[in-house]
Amino acid sequence: MPELPEVETVRRGVSRHYLGRKLLQLSVFGPRTVRRHDPGLLGALRGRTLCSVGRHGKYLLLGWDDGQVLVAHLRMSGQLLAAKPSEPLLLHTHAVLRFSGAGDLRFVDPRTFGEFFLAWTGSAPNSAGGARPPHGEDVASMAAEAQAMALPAELAGLGPDALDVGPAHLGAALAGRRAPLKALLVDQRVLAGVGNIYADEICFVARLRPDRPAGGLRPAELRRLAAATHSVLTNAIAAGGSTLSDQRYRDVLGEAGSYQFEHKVYGRAGQPCLSCGRPIERATIGAKSAYLCRRCQR
Ligand SMILES: [Zn+2]
Fold first, then answer.
1. DSSP character for 67?
2. Is there a single domain that holds both residue 144 and residue 190?
3. CATH number at residue 255
4. Core-most of 92, 107, 129, 298, by most CB within 10 Å?
């Protein structure tokens, strides 16, 4: 499933190619993609201009010049792909956004868990209304661009975006919790954006066992956890995310990410730890599996 780095990579692609463009047409095929409300409501976006492309955790937030927000979640297998209007639809295309002067943004999702829904942030639309912000690769400015928008009420139950948390938030969120550390790292109410892959990588870089009771971390360990969360996610974004052997994750232009080649533990059971040489183990923690090095992680 795409996690924060993959969704952020998609967000940057959508921003780069469609920001400031007018939506000519929005077509939805099949009942599952828009399931929280009448799909016909999306017709209201026709003629609107895309004026912001935000993200919170694994949710994409497409903001329009009338204050509406189209929220998208890729779930297990969703892809948002750029295409020319003349290109035939790929199998499992469930929605097409056609933009003036920029072609199509198509939602392809074989497993149909992904979804779109319309929301309002209650905040005034971006007065820049169609101006294109600079597209530097500076992580801080890109993160600010991703989160400039107020969150719709539908996402109010999510924790802070995982790129924004420091040791103080983690300490408060984990205090008193007896659940394993990994279970809380992937809990979107605690931290939005981390899933199976990056939780394992973060625990390894922080030198913490994923099955430690989350509430028992000392201040120095919380600082390591916060630093590892930031560095792992930032490095994964720089690599365009992780495309696993199923090849499902692709950016807007259909390119694979390369962070899978930098994974230190995820998917490496039996291979030597890159720090100490001991074989990486695959353990079961609660209902989840986790990859870890029992010598490097305490
Ligand atoms: Zn090791």
1. S
2. no
3. 1.10.8.50
4. 107
Do 149 and 167 lie in one domain? The reply is no
Query: In angstroms, rounded to a whole number, what is the distance separating the alpha carbons of residues 206 and 191?
Result: 16
pTM: 0.92
pLDDT tens for each residue of 267-278: 999 999 999 999
Angle between helices 139-146 and 4-18 (to 10 degrees): 80
DSSP symbol at 225:
H
Q: How far is the CA of 207 from the centre of ligand 1 (A)?
A: 9
Q: Give the number of C-alpha atoms closer than 13 A to the C-alpha of residue 127, restricted to the C-beta side.
A: 0
What are the Cα distances from residue 191, in Å, to 66, 165, 211? 30, 8, 17
Q: What is the CATH number of the domain that holds 104?
A: 3.20.190.10
E-strand spans in the chain?
23-28, 50-56, 59-64, 68-73, 79-83, 93-99, 103-108, 115-120, 281-285, 288-292
Q: Residue 201's domain spans which residues?
A: 162-292
Of these residues, 3, 6, 115, 221, which one is catalytic?
A: 3
In the reported structure, the alpha carbon of residue 213 is separated from the centroid of ligand 1 by a whole-number distance in angstroms of: 20
* pLDDT given for residue 140 in this prediction: 57
Domain boundary among the residues 133, 155, 177 is at 155
8 domain-assigned: yes
Domain end: 155, 180, 214, which one? 155
pLDDT computed for residue 128 by the predictor: 39
pLDDT digits (tens, 9 = 90+) for 61-105: 999 999 999 999 999 999 999 999 999 999 999 999 999 999 999
Residue 56 is assigned to a structural domain of this protein: yes
Please indicate whether residue 39 is annotated as part of the active site: no
Residues 268 and 171 reside in one and the same domain: yes
- For residue 199, the CA-to-ligand 1 centroid distance in Å is 17
Whether residues 99 and 185 fall in one domain: no
Query: Residue 94: which of 86, 84, 105, 85 has the closest Cα?
Result: 105
Residue at 297 is within a domain: no
Q: What three-state secondary structure class fits 91? A: coil
Distance (angstroms) between ligand 1 centre and the Cα of 81 equals: 39
